[in-house]
Amino acid sequence: MSRYPRVSVLIPAYNSSKTIIRALSSVAIQTLQPIEVIVVDDGSTDTTVSLVKEFSRNLRPASLRLITLGVNHGPAYARNVAWDATSGNLLALLDSDDSWHPRKLEIQATYMAEHAELALTGHRCGYMPEGYNEERLGTIAENWTSTRISAWQLMTFSQFLTPTAMLNARFPYRFDVSNHCCDERMLFLEVSLNKHAIERLELTLAYIHKAPYGEGGITARLWDCEKSELRMFSQLRQRGYICRGQAVLMRILSIVKYFRRVLICLLRKHIGYTAIKGM
To answer: Which of 13, 98, 197, 218 is deepest in the core (most CB within 10 A)?
Structure first.
């Protein structure tokens, strides 16, 4: 990989008028600027497109590219469209309702450039409720560590969330448009199961602004997401990545995790989430 990383930022957006400016602003203040930000509007019916166009006028020419789709296809399709349009050698994923720490690209892209064997990296993610004072993000410790992530770990539990992921842009893989809730995890698994190295940086460089499941968006539909995860293990079995016994074991574990999520959602109504909680 080049010693000087060229990062492309991919942002799918669908009816994101309430959050897209926050996401774009977190990119605009990065200490290492990407060579391009590609926003794919996935058939929005609100003011998302006009807000992105207005925001782009404040950036250097051609740094923000807006692609509009006439019909809503889902985030996996939108990410694939953006991926095919990139010119960078690293892809940084950001959802329209999430945001980054100002040093996210600097730290992660530099680390990947210095470790050419890595195909994909992620990092920890914090939970920042709407309205929380972002000035309290604080500084990043310089003595952070990283952890090598195996395919088994990725299958057992999601090791990092979408807005933390950065990967090699030249891979032939793409997001699975048939599995909306697990398209990112399926891609990460394909990378790992094809013997590419993955690491998680043990520091918080991204923030979600709603609970990781059960509060809004796709993850609010817990049973739909559970069916998608079960389908993912069936797909891995069909493609020869795992054996029948492994698929059965993973499906059982998935059902257990589903009931845990349901319980957490019920408890959340009474105790809530802690702000800036690492994940």
So the answer is: 13
pLDDT band at 244 (very low <50, low <70, confident <90, very high): very high
Residues 6 or more apart in contact with residue 242 via CB below 8 angstroms: 155, 233, 236, 250
End-to-end CA distance of the chain: 29
Q: Given pLDDT bands bounded at 50, 70 and 90, which one contains residue 173?
A: very high
Q: Count CA atoms closer than 13 A to 93's CA, side-chain side.
A: 29
- Which residue ranges make up each domain of the chain? 7-208, 218-272
At position 22, the amino acid (one-letter code) is R
The answer to whether residue 252 scores a pLDDT higher than 90 is yes
Give the pLDDT mean for 213-224: 63
User: Structure pTM?
Assistant: 0.87
Residue 225, token pair as written in the block: 């997401």
At the topology level, CATH places domain 7-208 in Spore Coat Polysaccharide Biosynthesis Protein SpsA; Chain A (3.90.550)
What whole-number distance in Å separates Cα of residue 264 and Cα of residue 156? 19
From CA 67, how far away is CA 167, in angstroms rounded?
A: 21
What token pair was written down for 135? 């000035």
